[in-house]
Amino acid sequence: MKFKLIVIFFIIFISKNLYSVETSEWLKREIDIILEAYKNQNLSNENRFLLIEKTINNNFAGTGIAKFVAGDAWKKSDKNTKKIYIDNFKRHLALNIASMMQGYSDQTYELTKSKYDKKNQVTLIDMEIFSDTGSVVVTWRVKESKDRFFVIDLIVADISLVVTKRSEFNSMLKKVDNDLSKFNEVLFDQNQISYQKITE
Which residue among 14, 53, 56, 109 has its CA within the 20 to 30 Å range from the CA of 95? Predict the structure, then answer.
């Protein structure tokens, strides 16, 4: 009986390790697409961003994050307003991630550690980025859904991108009385300014 338990534990342990390796390999491929885009001098700034935006939108759980950061404003909005907001949010997220990754594009990195959080069914992957002055660790939270992986959060210096965005959006939503339709206008204008800066 004890031997059977050991075998079962060993099988589960190996399975989780293989799963973490598979998740890390997937994440590395997607990160490299973004970093290689920055190194490709044949791309215009606009085409570079559009490539990066496509990669981010394909691999981040943008709709789920958008709903979370909108809070109560999401529940009170109609279907069309929600759709416009999700489109605005996905571009906002892509602009934020692209800007962050640009800062790391000339540095080397290594995926140093990954572990599976069984309770939340999330894989946590540490990415250490090296520079002349030291290194910084970014933790990617990755979840599997519909037989594929999605990034659901980024943690830099123990600060969650998603939680930070929720706090930031809550402050902005209060200024428009939690009206998501009005907020869409604000977010669209903000995106336009950021887009011009990153593609100029």
Answer: 109
